[in-house]
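Hi support team,

I'm filing this because I wasn't sure whether my run with magnesium ion finished correctly. The job status page said complete, but I'd like someone to confirm that the output block is well-formed before I use it downstream. Pasting the exact inputs I used:
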Amino acid sequence: MKPSTNIKSPGFWRLGEPFVWLTGAAMALVLILAGGMLVVVAGNGLGVFWPARLEQFEMKDKTVLLGAVTQRSAVRNGVAHSRLQVKVGNRDLSGADFRWIDADAVARTSAPPDALLVERREFGDFHGFLVRSATAGGVDGLRADWLRVRAEFAGVAELGKAVSKINDRMEGIRRDLLRLRYRNAPESGSAIRGCLARQAELKVEFDRLVAGQTRSLEGLRRHTATFRDAAGREKEIPLTDIVRFCQPNILGVGGKAGWYLEKVWELFFAEPREANTEGGLFPAIMGTVMMVFLMSLFSFPLGVVTAVYLREYARDGWLVRVVRIAVNNLAGIPSIVYGIFGLGFFIYGVGSGLDRLFFPERLPTPTFGTGGILWASLTLALLTVPVVIVATEEALGAIPAGVRHASLALGATKLQTLLRVLLPMASPGIMTGFILAMARAAGEVAPLMITGVVKLAPAMPLDGNFPFFHVDRKFMHLGFHIYDIGFQSPNVEAAKPMVYVTTLLLLFIVLLMSSSAILLRNRMKKRYTLGSF
Amino acid sequence: MSDTPLILPIENPVLKVSDLHLYYGDSEALHGISMGFPARQVTALIGPSGCGKSTLLRCLNRMNDLIEGVRVTGSLQLDDIEINDPALDVIGLRRRVGMVFQKSNPFPKSVYENVVYGLRIAGVGDRAVLDEAVEKSLRSAGLWDEVKDRLAESALGLSGGQMQRLCIARAIAVNPGIILMDEPCSALDPRSTARVEDLIVELRENYTIIIVTHNMQQAARVSDLTAFLYEGHLVEYGPTKRLFTKPLSPKTEDYITGRFG
Ligand SMILES: Nc1ncnc2c1ncn2[C@@H]1O[C@H](COP(=O)(O)OP(=O)(O)O)[C@@H](O)[C@H]1O
Ligand SMILES: [Mg+2]
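And here is everything the job wrote out:
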């Protein structure tokens, strides 16, 4: 044997270099996929509200179009030429608000400075030019008129609130009557007669208010302005129909930013319009947040208590082991199965039972025996509870035995040890499970579709009418909203921007909820591991 | 000299163990131990690893209850209470017999809350009483000067030796008569060990202390009486000085001269 004098480098393979590369590549791939999706959503979603330049296309066949270019694509069938997709608006005049045009067919393109973008309550945007308004002075006159009408219109909307209040009270009396009659109260008795009298009173008030409202609306609708589209057709638009307008081609950056912020504000705080493709997402945001909140209310305590039993009290036998395996597997069941279970058990079982017990007079109209935010939340709680259980169990299991023994040796009971030492120490781990559960619940759609989500909810689960939180109501949800406007909408092109915006918003909300939970968890972690109080 | 008993009888013991057998499932870990522990003295339990020192100690405050499959026979008398009585209020017992563990185990709470933990769970909520107990216990544990300005800070920020003394303070805050210590210094550096040993000698004034140690110098330094256990049997029990200088049993002699263990 000759002793080797030079120690050779172990070489590329022996150092395990390929493995490092493999792991790095896997991480890079994941980052690219997730990042790519975010970039696409953000890129498309963030630009939606920026008012686009309106271009006027004079075609070779003498037609004229005014619109914003939304897409360009190169088509190669034989000869290469490019096509443009233009949002021309004016759905009521020309039928479709998007057009594909051949770049070759365009004779002249210009950006007329006085081109108007008018957002309307109906028929989408109007692209065109102002012909005349009641107050002279061009666009400024139009703005003055419109602001005045809008102020009056707000007053009429106030009336609408009063109408809906009366409506609610009448509904209450209708239910009282139903109950009385169900209990066979005498028709001539004071109870029923009182109800009928109050109903008649309210009806008079209701009719009066509605008539007043209709009258004011009709009066307001007489204020109009006349516009002209690019082809020269005139269109008279009531000012009450105009949501907002601008001249994007001469609007400065400040003005555009103002428009943008206004639209974002509307998105967060206004009701949807035009089959959900326009306007705000307030009910869907509220629905999503409240559903997640309600879900947490069920899944969090249930999960933690179950885990505490499994880890601290149950004898570690085959039964506990089977339960543990079952719990772990619960997380893998397709969510639609939970939905069907929720429908069968909560809605048809528990809900119908509640109806038969407490609201028999309203049957066959169901109260709890139909989808609602309560049942949807319970279904999702069922779906997320395994995550909370597993996380809590692991957090409890990771606590050193010494701490338990110290507490017990000081004369603490098992419960005291649990409440004062173990649960606080496990709280960061429990929070982690909770964050995962919340994120999952916020993004889940399939089980909601059959347990209470609707396209357009007439009333929100939370409002100013007693008892304020109506857990039996159906609700709107951002995830379902994406599916609905993206795939169920008659006007797919018009809905597309909203799909991106809604997706962005859902991501944002999930991020907001989980990052606040993470923040909370980090504070707990600091508190229960090292550092100061 | 030859009539000195192997196992010293104790007059008026606070704790009296009679014919104690302990089984982990089917294996017997303590084979009939009988001995008394005198009041306000330090008794050291020594013996090779696995001889049953910790097991015996855990019998005295029923911490063995936490281990599944443990069976104990025989009698353990604290004053006139039978510790082994299944109907005994274990919580009350543990308040009278405190325990300090090998590995310091402070709660992830403030220094203050650690000390008052035992009082709080006993239902004491009076701030003045708690404040007083904190100062008294921390002073007794020789920790007051070091932590009096950081009572509100997390106990996990203390050094290893401070943590162990905090655990001692926590144990004496509930005012037990007896303190059990299971190798309280084995995870500490020599300086901290010396501080804890001094503390044990001071605490001897007011408490009955039973300490498990496999460090014979330590036993010699801090204890009044020493018991030598071997394979679950009590081999020899007597005054520390005598036991270390003139052991009666050849097994004891072999152990203290370092021939095994
Ligand atoms: N939880 C337990 N389960 C089963 N056997 C145990 C347990 N704890 C200790 N033993 C056994 O009991 C004997 C005494 O252990 P222990 O009291 O820990 O010894 P020491 O503290 O003197 O080192 C050893 O043989 C050990 O294996
Ligand atoms: Mg031991």
